[in-house]
Amino acid sequence: MSSEDRKKRGPEPTPEDPQKKEEAAAQPEEKVEEPQGSPGDPASVEEPAAEAEEAAGEAPVAGEEARHEEELARLRGELEATRRERDEYLDALRRLKAEFENSRKRMERETQRIRESAAERLVAELLPVLDNLDRALEAEGDIREGVRATRDQLTDVLAREGLTPIASDGQHFDPSVHEAVMSQPSEGHEEGTIVQTLERGYMFNGRPIRPAKVVVAV
After folding, report:
1. 152 vs 145: CA distance, rounded Å
2. Is there a contact between 137 and 143 (Cβ–Cβ < 8 Å)?
3. How many C-beta atoms lie closer than 10 Å to residue 185's C-beta?
4. Which is higher by pLDDT, 34 or 99?
5. What is the tens place of the pLDDT at every residue in 140-193?
6. Is the pLDDT at 199 greater than 60, yes or no?
7. Cβ count within 10 A of residue 212
8. How does pLDDT run across 71-112, given as a tens digit for each residue?
9. Burial of 216 per CB tally in 10 Å (0-12, 13-18, 19+)
10. What b-and-e string marks burial along 70-103, b requiring 16 or more CB atoms within 10 Å of the CB?
């Protein structure tokens, strides 16, 4: 073999020493122990992972329950405050209603008392008129003067209470205080003038309580 061929093939392997080979075979093979919990132990990997997942699952549930309890406590407080406010309003409304009812009853009693007092005063003032009528009936002869005097006395009593007659004869017709019963031609009166009063009208304290029934010229 030439030197060029040896270069191409490379260096030849050195023969092993038989003694070293026997010593290496006689030495026991050392066993490498894997540390507990190493990636090669599936149980050691799964247990911490499961515990972490369980702890992660329990924490949100507990937090959610706590928030629910706080929300319920807040709502209960608001409901209780609303109930107290409602009771206060109802109590105030009941008191106001009772005061209004008492005031209404007092006004009714006062109005009734005023009416009775006014009626009593009017009747007391009319008693002398009744006495004069009795005397006119007991008198002999013409009683026209007695009746006229009694009428004047009655008119005065009613005038003090606010009753006044409505002017009609010769007045221009006013539909607010006059009632036209009929109409007739009249040369001596302008059209719309009252020529005759059939029934006298009256006003009480400035308000008409009975219109005068009249005949109007056309």
Report:
1. 11
2. yes
3. 9
4. 99
5. 777 888 888 888 899 899 898 889 999 999 999 999 999 999 999 988 889 999
6. yes
7. 23
8. 999 999 999 999 999 999 999 999 999 999 999 999 999 999
9. buried
10. eeeeeeeeeeeeeeeeeeeeeeeeeeeeeeeeee
Measure the CA–CA gap between 191 and 184, rounded to whole angstroms.
Answer: 10
- Residues 36-65 have pLDDT tens digits of 544 445 544 455 555 655 555 555 667 788
For 12, which DSSP code?
P
CATH topology of domain 162-218: Nucleotide Exchange Factor Grpe; Chain A, domain 2 (2.30.22)
- The DSSP code for 172 is B
